[in-house]
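input
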Amino acid sequence: MEKNKTGKYLKYAIGEIVLVVIGILIALSINNWNENRINKKNGHLMLKAIRAENQINIDELAFKIEDSKNVRKTLILLLSSMGENFHKKDENLIDSLFFEGLSITIFDPNMASFTNMINSGNIEYISNQTLHDLLLEWSSKLDDLKSSQATTLHSFKTLVIPHFYDIISLVKIDRKFDIDENENLPVSAFQWDNRQALNSMKTENILEDHLYNLKKIEKSYERFYNDLKMLNANIEKEIE
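output
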């Protein structure tokens, strides 16, 4: 200070501070870049897991849709057999139609990888905005599907099945067409002709209602199937 070197030292000190700050900023920038790179990499790994999971769901859903269509075809055959001339119908055929038609297809998607991504927060590192939005909407789409299934399942359990408890022999039908599951099932104690159920307007109405509900759930499956395909297509764009 005595030699008037204060200004020189002050400039030197400021320079040192600036260099330190610049160094800190560069270090933070590198750290943030590296962290973002790691998060994006983890996000891509999760997306690959979701893609594989979705493909399983797609294949399973395609099977469920086809199964639902087959059940509806069976119900149409049953409805075309209704009437007072039921005794002219082939008894074995009618039993097989009841066995196939009194069923419902339920799809339970595997969403573990999707849930993991949402919970991890890595969804924010997805650059594909369409994919980002699709993933955010996925929970609501899944809820809609489950709600539709629940409505159909409730109708099946509370309306369809209870109606047939008193008018057909399930033991007789299961012994014929569900041998593997009922190999020890005894012969029914009742000599019952299941074709009698065809001579009932209530039976006809219940079968038609079941047909209608299956068509609705089938449409829900088809929408979800297309959504899964679209989601996987956008995942491909993100990770390529």
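quick obs: The helical segments are 6-80, 91-101, 112-120, 129-165, 170-177, 201-239.
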